[in-house]
Amino acid sequence: MAFILSLIAGFGAFFVGHQVFRRTPPYPVIDSLRTGRAHYLLLGVLVGMSLPEIDSPFELVRSNCIGAMLLYFGLQAGLSTDHQHLRVNRGISAFYAQATIVLATGGFAALAFLASDSVLYQDLGLLQNLPLAIALLTSFVLTARFPAPFFFWPNRPLANRIPGQNLSLSNIAAMAVLCIAFPVLTEKPVFYFGSLPFIGVLGVMLFTIVLGGLGGIALDFSFRSHRTSGRALSLVMGIVITLFGLCQTSGIPPLIVGFFAGIWLIHTTVAKREIVEITTRTTDALEPIFFVLFGTIIGEFVAGPSFFFIPLFFLAFTMVLVRVMGRIIGCAISQAVWQIPQTWRELFAASCHPQGTLAVAVVAQALYLLDFQHNTLVAGLVLAVFFGQIVLIPPARQSHF
Amino acid sequence: MRLLCITLGIGIAIWHLPSPPLMALVGFLITASVVGARLGNHVKLPGVIGMIAAGFAMGFSPLITPESHAGLQPFADIAMAWVGFYFGTSLSRPFLANSRLLAGSLCLYISPVLITVFALVFFRVPLLHTLQLAILSGISAPVFLERAEHTLRDTWPLSLLVATMGLFLYLLIDMGDAIGGNRISLDLAAKIALGVLIGLVGIELSHHWLRRIRTPTGQFTSWFALSFLIALASWHLDVQPLILAWGAGLALSCRTKRGPRPRARPPKAEALIGFALAHYVSGFDWHIPSIPPHFFALVAAVVLGKIAGGLLSRRFTAQPVQAWLPLLPQGLFAIVCFEVVSPATAPLYFACTGVGLSLLHPLVNFVVKKIKNGRLRARTHRTQAV
Lengths: 401, 386
Description:
With 401 residues, chain A is mainly alpha-helical.
């Protein structure tokens, strides 16, 4: 009954929101949360809180669906590594500026997390493998919502686009950190694919690249056969799900395999535009499902006895702070070195660039890769993603002179 | 060819694994069914036949064991719910109000039912069983109309109406049997009433929800969420999700005057339909202990009855033979209900009425075309002679 009531509450909230937003456009902060799919996560949390005990079929479907979607989001991140697009459409100085921001943010975040190892173990429920946890957290901090959000503020002119804002370099760097860190820092010595063992850093890396490459080849073939029809999408779904199954059997993170598959696909295909269009449309449909399902995991934790209210919000604020500070340092360095003229408002706007789906995907991946006593860290990180979306810097008021 | 190689490659990779993970099997079933549909289209057969063939092949291969088939059930239930919504929302009030279509579909449905009852009277089959088999014999397969639905205007609504009649009668008989056999207690009746009430509230909420969602993405997500909820409900109520979703879809469609807008309906997600069909077919148990004596009479009655019904319905709909020929095969709705009535012979029944008749359809179509051409030629000769 509680489940049904929560659904009715969700429907009711939707209707009220719909009526309100029809009359007045949402305030940019609310709009930012809406763009970041926070409402779906909230619905998921509500549903998760009201589920008395999770059925085994529901649990099975949920974990597998989230895993397959992780692979898809990895694929989407891989597709954004189109060299030609990066080279032609953006300036080289913007590329270097972004690289500086990424390096500074990553370095600052890694140092901050390295210094807080006891907090991770004692308060946030981490049980083992601190180095991998730090790598995952660094990767989380590096991610950014892509493409860049563009909000309209009442009585303010449209904000100027900051150079390099639309580069997906942050997400590529986040995935690169994950791809390099996982084979090096994993505690599992051997990965098996059937009876075939993959030992050591090079073995694991080779296996991941081969699996991703094979996935990319299969996807490329399916797009060569059907470019625009729904059948192409069906085939892509089939291949992505199979690939996730193969990742599952060997214990390789699907986010990384999807990333490699995406890199292969975008650099070998002859139908780049069609692929990007189809995958973007599909991502729009998959994101809400992912957020609702992931929300149910957090909802279960929130309703459970081990819910720590104060560390959760403290953690979220700290994460936002670390990320913003790291990006400010990076922006300041890039401004000084590459002589990019920026006002303080633009500097802050670039530093507070919100995180998106990939950040939540990295958190979901952490849930599968690390062992936790309780989900405080996971819930706090997701909360940090949505706190980060609230921190929006409005553009300057229009001058009357 | 490339796609076939990919599918075979995936199959070999999964076969290589000692215990293949569920998601790999889900993905393989989707890929195999889509490739099967494409191969089917190459040989001028409905894509659904290719999907079924892929399911048959998977069922006979060592990849799908009874345990893995049961493990895939929750995913297949969601896909089944989607299929149910797709067909449930396809039938709208204007179809039901069209007396020409209604009379035509009534003829199409009643003829096989009567002929089956007549045929089964000669075998000592219990009355309830006879009635159930007869009711199911009239159902057609809307999902098999992939190629025909665009060329023939009336075939699609006729098949939907025929399937609806069959399912309604089947549910009525089932309910009557439960009440007559005193299988419904007061407690169970209260639970059913509560379930119906929750269902009605849910349908009303979903109707308002879907009316406000304008974007294709939002609509797809909403339909997926509804399918998920139906699957969730079916696990608790122990009801086939296909039937539950079909009923909910029909109620949602009839809630509006003209049915949901074409864009507001669930899209024909080939991956989900293919997965649902292939999974269902791959689970068939082909070890049939003994074929009952009335089985072949039943199949013959289905074929004869549908042909008679088609000829009769021509009187009302004035449609060519090609309009009702695609309605000969039976599909998912019929077999799902038939498996409840007679589980042992369900695979054979599906092979005869689902696959056999579909394979026969292009041949019959060819013969009909030849006869028509012959008649035209004869008429031309006659005119020239005159």
